[in-house]
């Protein structure tokens, strides 16, 4: 299980006229990863692919503007979707037809959106005018009078309240009539009247103090109160127009919703097909497809090709791909597969690299359980995650997370049984021990968990070297790490901080292991003459010093197992203590206390569960993965058409 799916490099040669048929066969097979051929003769589809990418972006914009939503989570059963049929005889012609249809829909939608934008701008203008008139009416200022002024310039504006005092000081040396009054929490109404020649000076002062001027309403021909009534009627009319337009846009959403989802999918499929055809080398009559497929599925691939092509193809097989860089496909049993989600968060393993998922499927829930050790809370997480995994049908990521949640809950159940704790209380004698009465013992146990996991990381590092046939590194890199770490931990537990005891012998074993760690590979390189001695020595010195510095911090990091378990207990203890005080209140005390206990437990499950999950991730990613895992593999992406909303039918095939 630690190995990724074993791949075979395959070359398929067919007639060029059968290329689309061959691609359809690979689509139905569903496990063939197409690689770009290294030959020089290609058919260039870059321009049409670029056009399809722009069409795809246009579709996304239309779907967003029309608020077309597919259900993100499907419960109980998958939604039955009526698929749109697309008949394919030429991908280029299909791409052209799709682009035209999308452009037509885009133009129709944009007409409505343009009208909506115009209405919004008009409403915004009317609202601004109404606001100005409301302020003027409040201070009994008639805008018609202000328009008729010739030698005097009037400014009506608002300013931040914090700037009003300094603004008044700046205006005090000028011949102005100045008045302000607060009209909100943040801004004040400003009225300034001055002579025309001081206009520029006033405007510069306004810029300094973030003053926003209102335009004088030259188009207002009535009293402010009458103008307000007129603007209110106009706003109501525009609001009705907007509601009608929004209804029309909603009708467009219902009209084109399913079609847009189908078009988005067929655009991606067309782009996928053209990229696949572009990756294929062609001659005048033949086409050559190069790619990877799982070794266990080669016979099935041949059956699919025979079904679609008869004997009009040749298949070349290469199982020996030691010098190649195949894509990575994980292979794990069904009950382990959900944890692939966590592995992929860090990165896929390389083809010749151990897949940590099977081991993590055991260590992740166990470490989570030790931090969250509570029988009651663990049972809720277990049953809740299990229920969600059955109720949620899609997307698959949510189902996988629900299963991970269930296994973490199961780990907490086991820990709760060992600790004798349920809902933050000791409800039965612990099967193992009570961590809160044996804090030092449990802390040491936490470190032992860390030592075991870190050591397993070194063993997996050795396994990776074996996979890559780097046997010198097995003996001079991985083995010295294990020996050095093991000896150091052993003597730390035996000697503690007794320096006299260390100097009596243990320190020399550690020095010997350190010498082997730093100089083992350089000496082997010098002996075998496979590499440069100084380069190997520099690499080992750098990696060795980094390892020595990090091992202590990595191991100490597992003390968080005790810390988070104590935090879990402390939160619940505080909950029960507060509810006990509240319960002493007359009449409703018991009711409120019960509500607080239930609410507190729900809060702890959610909050503490999230925190513990994050710290469990950290222990695996930083303390464990860093010992053996690169996670830089290339994803296995089989050629396959998406057909959730569409059905692709090939004509004359």
Describe this structure in words.
β13 (421-422) and β14 (425-426) form a beta hairpin. The longest helix has 55 residues, at 224-278. With 653 residues, the protein is α+β, with helices and mostly antiparallel strands. Among the domains are: 143-222, Alpha-Beta Plaits, CATH 3.30.70.2750; 357-434, no CATH class. The protein contains 19 helices and 15 strands. Strands 1, 2, 9, 10 and 11 form a five-stranded antiparallel β-sheet that branches. A four-stranded antiparallel β-sheet has the order 6-7-5-8. It has a two-stranded antiparallel ribbon with strand order 3-12. α11 packs antiparallel against α12.
State the end-to-end CA separation. 40 Å
The outline comes out as extended
Beta-strand residue percentage: 5-15%
Mean pLDDT: 87
Low-confidence spans: none
- The number of helical elements comes to 19
- Return the CATH class of the domain at 143-222: Alpha Beta
Structural class: alpha+beta
Radius of gyration: 36 Å
Largest sheet: 5 strands, antiparallel
What is the number of strand segments? 15
- Give the name of the CATH architecture of the domain at 143-222: 2-Layer Sandwich
What is the CATH topology assignment of the domain at 143-222?
A: Alpha-Beta Plaits
Portion in helices: 55-70%
